[in-house]
């Protein structure tokens, strides 16, 4: 009886360990961020880097894609997108508030969807 109980316990522990998601310390993430110019680039990258766990941020003006290296144990994509939206720039998931968008310089005000 003890052997059966031990086997069931080990099986349960094995399944529990497999069910846990392993979070990457150097995950590569990319998503679209709306912007126009070099000032936008600085603001977007600064907004992303303000989030703990973001190791690098590089926004490409020509395609509007933000490339990140992120420690997934410290943050997630939604948190980063919220920080960028607070800086006045829309992402695919999070739109900037009108007040934050209106604070942008006129050359930075992109066409909103």
From TrEMBL:
Residues 1-19 form the signal peptide. Keywords: Signal. One of its GO terms (molecular function) is metal ion binding. Residues 26-92 form the HMA domain. InterPro entries: HMA_dom, HMA_dom_sf. This is Copper chaperone CopZ.
